[in-house]
Amino acid sequence: DYTGYGLSSGHPYEEHLYADIDSVMSSLMYLYDIQPEDVILFGESIGSVPTIDLATRLPVRAVILDGPIVSGLRTILPVTRLLAFDPFPNLLKVENIECKVLLFHGIDDTLVNIEDALLLLSRCPRRVDPFLAVGCGHNHVKYHPQYYKRIRKFLYEELDII
């Protein structure tokens, strides 16, 4: 949940997404004494925006992206490059993520182009093999029978979490 969506009031502006994730991270750190190095961020669709932004600013343990967007305009218009006024510039930020990144994406996603998601992943310095789900659209990858097995493999084998 974030400002302007779900149970939250307000408007879902870009700066609110960043403030929301910063608030959650601050709460984890100061109320629960959880350090960024112990946090695995998960961002789905537009949730990839604050997730990628935070991962470029803090040394988190890992990032999982499910149907991430490359940018705001590329999600809704057939543009091929980022423009100066393009909101949600994930493509410009993702190369600054220093931790491992796992991508989930539906082969049949008609909202976020799979080529865009793979372009985004290709710019991640520490990417792992993605999970590309055949027969899944934008909001359906999490229902794939192998989805949680792939997360488990990422956690226990690729991150060496015991």
TrEMBL record:
Q: Which InterPro entries match?
A: AB_hydrolase_fold
User: Could you tell me the superkingdom of the organism this chain comes from?
Assistant: Eukaryota
The protein's name? Alpha/beta hydrolase
Source organism of the structure: Medioppia subpectinata
